[in-house]
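Ticket #4471: structure export looks truncated?
Reporter: QA, pipeline team
Priority: medium

Steps to reproduce: submit the single chain below to the structure queue and open the exported record.
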Amino acid sequence: MPYINVKITDEGVTCEQKQAIIKGCSQLMIDVLDKNPQTTFVVIEEVSTDNWGIGFEQVTKLRQTKAT
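Actual output as written to the record:
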């Protein structure tokens, strides 16, 4: 019974994109581990860019710097 936790920043991911993530992760478990998709759980957590850091900096600030 795989449990897959996907964490992404909360930057406007659509319902269709989330469905594609769920489908892709489930298919990977089928292809690689021969797992049953009916017992494969995929959880997507959206994290504020203020709460996500890369290389000493918040993603929010990195995005602002990149935009300018």
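Status: closed, not a bug. The export was complete when the record was re-opened. Leaving a note from the reviewer for reference: The longest helix spans residues 15-33.
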